[in-house]
Amino acid sequence: MPKKVAKKPLKKFHTRFTDEDPSVYKEPAPLNAKSSGVEKENPLESMMERFDKAAEILGLEQGIYQYLKTPVKCVIVSVPVTMDDGRIEIFDGYRVVHNDILGPSKGGIRYAPDVNLDEVKALAAWMTWKCAVIDIPFGGAKGGVTCDPRKLSQRELEMITRRYTANMLDVFGPDRDIPAPDVNTNEQVMAWVLDTYSMHRRRTEPGVVTGKPLILGGSKGRREATGRGVMHATLSGLEKLRISPNKATVAVEGFGNVGSISAASLYEQGAKIIAISDVTGGYYNEKGINVEAAIKFSETHGNLLEGFKGGDKITNDEVLTVKCDVLVPAAREDRITDRNAKDIKAKLIVEGANGPTSASADEILDSKGVMVIPDILANAGGVKVSYFEWVQNRMGFYWPLDLVNQRLEQAMKDAFDRVYENGQKHNVSLRLSSYILAIDKVARTLKLRGIYG
Ligand code: NAD
Q1: If DSSP states are collapsed to H, E and C, what string results for the chain?
Q2: Average pLDDT of every residue of the chain
Q3: What pLDDT score was predicted for residue 40?
Q4: 431: burial class by Cβ within 10 Å (0-12, 13-18, 19+)?
Q5: Tell me, what's the pLDDT at 15?
Q6: For this structure, is 26 an active site residue?
Q7: What is the side-by-side strand order in the sheet with 348-350?
Q8: For residue 286, how far is its CA from the centre of ligand 1 (angstroms)?
Q9: Residues 335-356 pLDDT 10s
Q10: How far apart are CA 134 and CA 132, in angstroms?
Q11: Identified catalytic residue from 53, 106, 121, 142
Q12: pLDDT at 117 over 80
């Protein structure tokens, strides 16, 4: 159990600017590569460092502290698949249920070459805190398969998904554990999860996954929800910083579901998107990137920006440190660390991705006066609308897009205000404030329920 810490004064949210310009072209970092030769940090350690700080401020008792830091279930399965060339290949599959005190556990499934148990544990815990912050009756979980989807055919992807789901039949369920899309998984993957689960249950169970196609019981607005939520969080942050959205310059790292829709939504609000990136590298345009054109380009080029002519090519790392008002990291974990935090020039960081900032960068950003809207708040719009989808599945009655978007906007604003006010009360950053709110809610629920046995 951590020791009590002295309260630090709340930092002013300002930043210094330099006149550096990103210009030099370097080879883009490959998918999930270590950046600049620095070892990838452990997201579980980053999560625990923040958890410990919040637990200390809350004065969490030892037993509750131990309970909340330990996942309730870690399942590792082998996923054998007959590949297109007839070989049998074995993939590793994971599902971690971190906590189910507030309700059924909820969290995405990710397909990537570096998926591992520690990463999935960290992501599962973040889901617990995220569901608590955004005020939905769900616990936290996460799953993944260690594979490189770029090297898989559509049939192989389907086989991996179906076998992984079949292996998780005792874990998944509309009242138990509900997966959703994450990195490299999409509506089609969710449709396969739904179908495999439903075949075994002998009835169609739309509520077993969220983020599924509309025609299968998906919710209007779910695909855009995380990015739209990032946009609402950004507007709340900009308001506190007294920056008008149509005067704001924005850099977005990652151009998948979250990154592209965050960029498009902020563009719609009048912000100038000056840098974007994906696994193929960064693209910079001082005058502003035409986001619609970038999305169209990516959609017609295998979901990649390689060859996009709407900006000068820069590196993935340079996208993080360009001179801008807002930085939206929306790719992977640990992109902002003690290695590059000192070079960040944004006044506001809105974490579209889960865990893009390692704990080692927190103090540096804090001392620079950068306002950071943490992942468990900034990207919680996705799980909020996943919850709406699950509710609609249970009602068998579907909401119009306006209603979904209106409820999402209200939820993001309310959550930001709660976190901001709590931050003022405890004199802590928005990140620590989010953790304090979330851990306190789950801890109080645990005390009410008690320990069975
Ligand atoms: P995605 O697979 O749709 O997109 C990921 C993007 O990141 C791709 O454009 C990829 O090319 C890019 N990328 C990968 N490595 C990169 C690098 N080193 N530099 C720059 N770009 C890189 O995934 P997504 O669903 O958009 O998820 C992105 C992040 O957001 C993840 O951390 C995920 O956990 C988080 N998230 C997603 C959702 C959701 O609803 N999809 C919800 C909450 C949080």
Answers
A1: CCCCCCCCCCCCCCCCCCCCCCCCCCCCCCCCCCCCCCCCCCHHHHHHHHHHHHHHHHCCCHHHHHHHHCCCEEEEEEEEEECCCCCEEEEEEEEEEEECCCCCEEEEEEEECCCCHHHHHHHHHHHHHHHHHCCCCCEEEEEEEECCHHHCCHHHHHHHHHHHHHHCCCCCECCCEEEEECCCCCHHHHHHHHHHHHHHHCCCCHHHCCCCCHHHCCCCCHHHHHHHHHHHHHHHHHHHCCCCHHHCEEEEECCCHHHHHHHHHHHHCCCEEEEEEECCEEEECCCCCCHHHHHHHHHCCCCCCCCCCCCEEECHHHHHHCCCCEEEECCCCCCECCCCHHHCCCCEEECCCCCCECHHHHHHHHHCCCEEECHHHHCCHHHHHHHHHHHHHHHCCCCCHHHHHHHHHHHHHHHHHHHHHHHHHHCCCHHHHHHHHHHHHHHHHHHHHCCCC
A2: 91
A3: 56
A4: buried
A5: 26
A6: no
A7: 312-314, 281-284, 272-278, 249-253, 326-329, 348-350, 371-373
A8: 24
A9: 999 999 999 999 999 999 999 9
A10: 6
A11: 142
A12: yes
Strands 73-82 and 88-99 turn out to be antiparallel
| Residue 324 near residue 274 (C-beta atoms within 8 A) | yes
What is the best residue among 278, 327, 388 to mutate for testing ligand 1's pocket, by most ligand atoms within 8 Å of CB? 278
Taking the whole predicted model, whether its pTM rises above 0.85 is answered as yes
Distance, CA 260 to ligand 1 centroid (Å)? 9
| Other residues' Cβ atoms within 10 Å of the Cβ of residue 33 | 13
Q: Looking at the predicted structure, is the pLDDT value of residue 17 above 50?
A: no
Provide the β-strand partners of residue 350.
Answer: 373
Across the range 45-64, mean pLDDT stands at: 94
d(CA 251, CA 249): 7
From the CB of 104, is ligand 1 less than 6 Å away? no
Residue 95 token pair: 């599902």
